[in-house]
C-alpha cells in the first residue's frame, strides 16, 4: 500500500483505507496512489484547470465591478490580479509536479513551513469548497428564475435538484467527475470565445442597429469611476474593489493542483496545465474584462438597477445587457443557460475529497457527503428578506477571503498581494455611514477562523517553523516515480489527433 504524510510530523502513515479487505490487484496498484484512483486524463486536467475558475464571477460578478469602478479600472484590476495568480500557480504547479499527492495544498504547507499552517490551510480549503458549493447553488437557483414559468417555483426546489445532481457526480468514480467537468468546461469555453468574437463584431458595427461602439463608453461616462469618495481617492477605491471582485472570479484556479492526486501521468499533465494558465488568464479574464467595458456603459440604467435589486440571473449580466442594447434579442436565454451550467459546474468542482476513508472506486465518499451537507446552508436563500440574492452575496464574500488565504501560502509576491486584499477587503464598511454588521462579518470572519485554527494547532501540537534545509521533499516520491514508468504518452495517428494532444 502506498503512503501519505502525517500533517503534523511529516512522517509516513497509511493512506486512505479501502472498505474492502482484499489486497488491491496489480492493475489497481498501477493506477492508484494512496488508494485514490488516478482516473483523470490529460484532457480532464486541462479542462478542470479551465472550468474550475470560470464561473458566475466572470459572467455575473464582473458587472458589479464595472458599475463601481469603470472599464479601465476593471481591466487593470483583472490584469494585476491575474499576474499574481500566475505567480502563485507557477510555484504551486512546481510543487504539485514534484510530489503530486492527495491533499496537495495542506501537505505542502505542513511539509515545507509548519504543521500548524498545514492544519489551518487544510480546513480552510475544505471550508472554501463547502461555501463555494453554497454560493454556486444559490446563484444557480437565482439564474433559473430568469425564465418564464420558473418564478413561481420555490427556490428550495431548484437547490435540492442541483445539489442531488452534484453529489451524484462526485460520489462515483473520479472518471465520471472528470467527464462532467470536461463537458461543463467545454460549454463555458465555447461561450466565452463566442462572446469575445461577438464583442469584436459589435464593436465594429456588426449589429442590428449598425452602431459602431468602439470605445464609446470609455469616453462617456469615462474610464474610471469614483466610489465612496470624490476625486483621486474615489477612483482608487473603485479600482481596489475590482481587485477583490477579480479574486472571486479567479477562485478555483488552484483545483488543478488539488486534482494532481487523482491524475494520470501527473508529472507531464500538471505542468502542461499550469503553463497554459498564463494564456487562459489573458484570453478569458483580461480580454473578458476589456470586452465587458466595450459592450456596456458603467452607468447603464438596467445594469445599475439589477445591481441595486440584487438580481443574479441573466438580467444582471453585462454581456446580456450589452447585446440587448444593440438590438440582439436571441442571446439572453442562451447566456442564462450557460451561466446556469457555470454555477452548477463550479459547485461540482468544489465538492472534493478531504477525509480519508475511500470506497472500492477510490472515492472519499464520507468527505463528499459531509461537504454536501454544508450545501444545506443554501436554503438560507428561501428567506423572504433578501432571499437568494442576499445569500449569494454572503457566500461570495466568504469564498473570496478563504481563497486568498490558500493562495497566500505559495509565493512571497502573492503572499504580500493577497494579504493586502485580506486586510482591506472590507474597507467599505468603515466609510462614513456604511457600517453594516453582516458585511463586516462576511469580510473578516475567515481571518478569525484561520487564525484560531493556526494558533490552536500550534499550541496543542507545539509545531515549529521548518527551516528550508529540513523540508521533507522526498517522502512519497518513490511511489510516484514507480507509476511514472507505467504511463505512456499517446501517439497521434493523424493531424487532428496531433492538434488535440497539443490542446489537451
UniProtKB/TrEMBL annotation:
PROSITE patterns cross-referenced by the UniProt entry: AMINO_ACID_PERMEASE_1
One term under GO cellular component: membrane
GO MF term list: amino acid transmembrane transporter activity
Membrane-topology annotation of the record: Multi-pass membrane protein
One Pfam family recorded for the sequence: AA_permease
Ranges for domain Amino acid permease/ SLC12A: 44-412
Keyword Phosphoprotein applies: no
Transmembrane stretches, start-end: 45-66, 73-92, 125-144, 156-178, 184-204, 277-297, 334-355, 362-382, 404-428, 440-460
Keywords: Amino-acid transport, Membrane, Transmembrane, Transmembrane helix, Transport
InterPro entries for the chain: AA-permease/SLC12A_dom, Amino_acid_permease_CS, APC_YAT
Basic and acidic residues: bias regions: 1-22
Region feature Disordered, mapped onto this chain: 1-29
Compartments (UniProt record): Membrane
The protein's name: Putative proline-specific permease put4
Annotated organism of origin: Fusarium oxysporum f. sp. cubense (strain race 4)
Amino acid at each position: 500500500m502506498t503512503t501519505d504524510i502525517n500533517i503534523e510530523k511529516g512522517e509516513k502513515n497509511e493512506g486512505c483505507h479501502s472498505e474492502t479487505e482484499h489486497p488491491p490487484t496489480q492493475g489497481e496498484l498501477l493506477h492508484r496512489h494512496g488508494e485514490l484512483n488516478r482516473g483523470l486524463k490529460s484532457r480532464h486536467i486541462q479542462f478542470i484547470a479551465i472550468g474550475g475558475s470560470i464561473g458566475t464571477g466572470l459572467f455575473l460578478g464582473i458587472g458589479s465591478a464595472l458599475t463601481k469602478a469603470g472599464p479601465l479600472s476593471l481591466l487593470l484590476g483583472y490584469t494585476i490580479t491575474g499576474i499574481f495568480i500566475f505567480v502563485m500557480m507557477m510555484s504551486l504547479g512546481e510543487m504539485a509536479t514534484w510530489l503530486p499527492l492527495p491533499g496537495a495544498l495542506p501537505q505542502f504547507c505542513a511539509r515545507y513551513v509548519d504543521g500548524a499552517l498545514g492544519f489551518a490551510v487544510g480546513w480552510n480549503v475544505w471550508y472554501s469548497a463547502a461555501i463555494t458549493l453554497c454560493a454556486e447553488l444559490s446563484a444557480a437557483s437565482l439564474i433559473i428564475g430568469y425564465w418564464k414559468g420558473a418564478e413561481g417555483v420555490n427556490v428550495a426546489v431548484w437547490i435540492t435538484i442541483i445539489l442531488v445532481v452534484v453529489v451524484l457526480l462526485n460520489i462515483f468514480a473520479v472518471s465520471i467527475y472528470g467527464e462532467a467537468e470536461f463537458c461543463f468546461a467545454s460549454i463555458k469555453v465555447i461561450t466565452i470565445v463566442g462572446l469575445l468574437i461577438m464583442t469584436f463584431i459589435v464593436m465594429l458595427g456588426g449589429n442590428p442597429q449598425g452602431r459602431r461602439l468602439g470605445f464609446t463608453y470609455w469616453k462617456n461616462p469615462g474610464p474610471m469611476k469614483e466610489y465612496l469618495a470624490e476625486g483621486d481617492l474615489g477612483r482608487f477605491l473603485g479600482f481596489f474593489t475590482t481587485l477583490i471582485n477579480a479574486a472571486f472570479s479567479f477562485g478555483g484556479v488552484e483545483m488543478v493542483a488539488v486534482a494532481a492526486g487523482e491524475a494520470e501521468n501527473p508529472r507531464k499533465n500538471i505542468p502542461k496545465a499550469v503553463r497554459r494558465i498564463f494564456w487562459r488568464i489573458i484570453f478569458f479574464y483580461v480580454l473578458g474584462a476589456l470586452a465587458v467595458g466595450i459592450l456596456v456603459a458603467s452607468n447603464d440604467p438596467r445594469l445599475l438597477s439589477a445591481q441595486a435589486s440584487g438580481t443574479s440571473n441573466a438580467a444582471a449580466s453585462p454581456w446580456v445587457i450589452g447585446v440587448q442594447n444593440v438590438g440582439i434579442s436571441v442571446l439572453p436565454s442562451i447566456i442564462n443557460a450557460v451561466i446556469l451550467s457555470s454555477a452548477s459546474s463550479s459547485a461540482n468542482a468544489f465538492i472534493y475529497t478531504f477525509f480519508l476513508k475511500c470506497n472500492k472506486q477510490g472515492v472519499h465518499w464520507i468527505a463528499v457527503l459531509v461537504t454536501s451537507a454544508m450545501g444545506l446552508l443554501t436554503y438560507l436563500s428561501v428567506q423572504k428578506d433578501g432571499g437568494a440574492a442576499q445569500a449569494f452575496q454572503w457566500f461570495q464574500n466568504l469564498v473570496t477571503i478563504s481563497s486568498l488565504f490558500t493562495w497566500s501560502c505559495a509565493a512571497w509576491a502573492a503572499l504580500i498581494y493577497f494579504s493586502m486584499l485580506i486586510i482591506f477587503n472590507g474597507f467599505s464598511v468603515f466609510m462614513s455611514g456604511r457600517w453594516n454588521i453582516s458585511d463586516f462579518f462576511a469580510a473578516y470572519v475567515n481571518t478569525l477562523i484561520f487564525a484560531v485554527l493556526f494558533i490552536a494547532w500550534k499550541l496543542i501540537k507545539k509545531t515549529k517553523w521548518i527551516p528550508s534545509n529540513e523540508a521533507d521533499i522526498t517522502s512519497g516520491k518513490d511511489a510516484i516515480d514507480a507509476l511514472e514508468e507505467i504511463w505512456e504518452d499517446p501517439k497521434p495517428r493523424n493531424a487532428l489527433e496531433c492538434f488535440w494532444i497539443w490542446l489537451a
